[in-house]
């Protein structure tokens, strides 16, 4: 049997929504300070997700006071207690490292915004096509009138 499967077999999974790179998430994780334990939050955009089963990790990036902060979390119930998806993002890449070079806050289009934008573009194209068809029909009508008028 594979030694990784033996190690990670009994580890439980963290209750999460299925998240992907580009999603905006809120991660609830445990902090251990001396003899106390408390739960903290980290909210940002998932820029990377890697691994499988018990060795799965993901990286979350956020901009705080104009400074980019990234934090990597193992998907392990000893550290991460909950991951909640705030907003689904629509991206075409699996690693969003290009966000590091962008200054300021970044906005990734959500799935609902993309469908609205596509619908608006389709409506605009349809109205433009009907306008062109009307102009062509008017031009054809004028040329037919000119021929019969001679």
Textual characterization of the structure:
The protein is α+β, with helices and mostly antiparallel strands and 150 residues long. The model has no long low-confidence stretch (mean pLDDT 78). The chain has a 5-stranded antiparallel β-sheet, with no helix packed on it. It folds into 2 domains: 3-104, SH3 type barrels, CATH 2.30.30; 109-150. The protein has 2 helices and 5 strands, in the order αβββββα. The radius of gyration is 27 Å and the shape is elongated. 30% of the residues lie in helices and 33% in strands.
Q: How is the secondary structure organized here?
A:
Blueprint (H helix, E strand, L loop, with lengths): L2 H6 L15 E10 L2 E15 L6 E8 L2 E8 L5 E8 L23 H39 L1
Antiparallel strand pairs: 1-2, 1-5, 2-3, 3-4
Can you give keywords for this protein?
single chain; 150 residues; alpha+beta; SH3 type barrels; 5-stranded antiparallel β-sheet; 2 helices; 30% helix; elongated
